[in-house]
Amino acid sequence: MTGEISTRVRLRYSKTGRIRYTSQRDMARAWERALRRAHLPIAYSEGFSPRPLLSFSLALPTGCESSAEYIDLRFREGEEGPTGVRVAEASGSSGADEVARLLSDLVPPGIEIESAATLDGAGGSLQEQVTSCSWSVEVTQMSTAQLTERVDYLLAAATVPIERERKGRRVTDDLRPSILRLEVVGPGEGPGVIRLDADLATKPRGVRPGELLGGISPQVRLVRARRTAQWIDDADGRQEPLTRDGRLPTSVPSLAAERS
After folding, report:
1. For residue range 113-152, what is the model confidence (pLDDT) as tens digits?
2. What residue segments make up the domains of the chain, in order of their start?
3. Fold of 5-121
4. Which of 78, 100, 132, 237 has a 20 to 30 A CA-CA distance from 199?
5. pLDDT tens, 90-111?
6. Angle CA(64)–CA(195)–CA(231) in degrees, nearest 5?
7. Beta strand 169-174 pairing with 54-56
8. Is 129-233 assigned to CATH 3.30.2350.10?
9. How many angstroms separate the Cα of 210 from the Cα of each of 62, 94, 162, 196, 206?
10. Is 47 exposed, middle or buried (0-12, 13-18, 19+ CB in 10 A)?
11. What's the whole-model pTM score?
12. Is the torsion defined by CA of 105, 106, 110, 116 positive or negative?
């Protein structure tokens, strides 16, 4: 790795359409290809097989859409690519916007970069900082009255055991502590489709929309799911890692604080 890492840029993007069937691993490869084609001075890891230093927020389940995904990019100090973007110039909002502009034409269809901002200091991992996610989930095979009854029953329950796979084994987990909010909103898109809105905790483990529906009823069927927000809880309350208008959280725990 050449040069000291001095700058990080955070991008917020949406993932919609057919690309929702692309896995998290393939998405990482797509971003790496876009970074190479943009000729940005991205920092690389050390070792036998260096990789671009980029980090994602919580992995999006394959098949789900999202209007709130995030990626952090690390750049090398004092280096300039053929595009003329220097790390020093990327230290302000205009530099972060230029990074977003260069990448917007290179990422796959269905990925739309919505905002960008420069991060100060080392910072912590997005995956560690995000404490909950908001979801819009559309389902079928139940009437509104039946679904409302099942949701009310779930919210009143002390425990909601579900089976899930972990490291190749089937285990039983209690879903109830992870459900922070769940409500039947009304009709979704299409005949017989009903929309649910949910806030789901990410710790100690995240909950997939399919697992949530398993806790509601084996009868209900998933039509589509979209992650609408990811949230960080800090001293100033619940905040997004980066808003659509480019605002960062007012206080984010540093990596050093997380390790202490």
Report:
1. 999 998 876 567 888 899 999 999 999 999 999 999 999 9
2. 5-121, 129-233
3. Alpha-Beta Plaits (3.30.70)
4. 100
5. 445 568 898 999 999 999 999 9
6. 55
7. unpaired
8. yes
9. 11, 40, 11, 13, 12
10. exposed
11. 0.86
12. negative
